[in-house]
Amino acid sequence: MTSMIATKRLYLRQWQASDLALFAEMNADPEVMAYFPKLLTPALSNTIANKCQKLIEEHGWGFWAVARKDSADKSDDFIGMVGLNNAHADMPFAPAVEIGWRLNNDYWGLGYATEAAQAALRYAFEVLELSEVVAFTAVINKRSQKLMQRLGMTDTQDNFYHPMLDAEHRLAEHVLYKITRQQWKLA
After folding, report:
1. Do residues 173 and 139 touch, judged by C-beta distance below 8 A?
2. How, if at all, do strands 154-155 and 97-103 pair?
3. In which residue ranges of the chain is pLDDT below 50?
4. Which pLDDT score, from 0 to 100, does residue 38 have?
5. Do 53 and 14 contact (CB within 8 A), yes or no?
6. Residue 123: Cβ-neighbour burial (10 angstroms; 0-12, 13-18, 19+)
7. Would you say 70 and 80 are in contact if contact means Cβ atoms under 8 Å apart?
8. How many CB atoms lie within 10 A of CB 164?
9. pLDDT of amino acid 146
């Protein structure tokens, strides 16, 4: 298994020390974090990045750092993260492997999230040989749902309340999308 994937314009790669400050800036941006319960402190952001890095070291896959191939300054090529993760055990659909993404808003609307997520799905089905991959987000997060649809994922119509949020929280109700290996092959 490899810890780096190349697409036409991007690398999905292992995390680097130079990514941490840029990731922390993203995680403190209200627009980027609009569909997360809170903004992250730099310390918590670094903890997440370090966990992502460790999981890639151990398993060869996870939430990869996404870097632009055309960046003139290779220490500043980080634009976010995209990848795969084992869903938390307390999720109603667990066990499952989820696909997820978080990009700096300077790179929204350019097709980078779709390109990186397509590569992550290819890895899930061709390398890991998974039978299905899921994705979930708050019901009000239409942007992520549109990306799930572009990936060929289908809404399971099995909404759930995120177990880490109070049921009254504006982000509590989530949609669950999935794609099987067979659906992916036909897409």
Report:
1. yes
2. unpaired
3. none
4. 96
5. yes
6. buried
7. no
8. 11
9. 98
State which residues form the domain around 35.
5-186
Residue (of 127, 107, 120, 129) closest to 153 by Cα position: 120
CATH number at residue 101: 3.40.630.30
- So what's the pLDDT on residue 2? 57
Q: Vertex 153, ends 180 and 88: CA angle to 5°? A: 75
Question: Rounded to an integer, what distance in angstroms lies between the CA atom of residue 118 and that of residue 20?
Answer: 24
Q: Compute the CA torsion angle 137, 142, 148, 153 (nearest 10 deg).
A: 90
What is the distance between the alpha carbons of residues 187 and 155, in angstroms, rounded to a whole number?
A: 16
Task: Count structural domains, the chain.
Answer: 1
SS (H, E, C) the chain: CCCCEECCCEEEECCCCCHHHHHHHHHCCCCCCCCCCCCCCHHHHHHHHHHHHHHHHHHCCCEEEEEECCCCCHHHCEEEEEEEEECCCCCCCCCCEEEEEEECHHHCCCCHHHHHHHHHHHHHHHHCCCCEEEEEEECCCHHHHHHHHHCCCEECCCCEECCCCCCCCCCCEEEEEEEEHHHHHHC
Residue 144, number of CB atoms within 10 A of its CB: 19
Provide the pLDDT for residue 71.
75
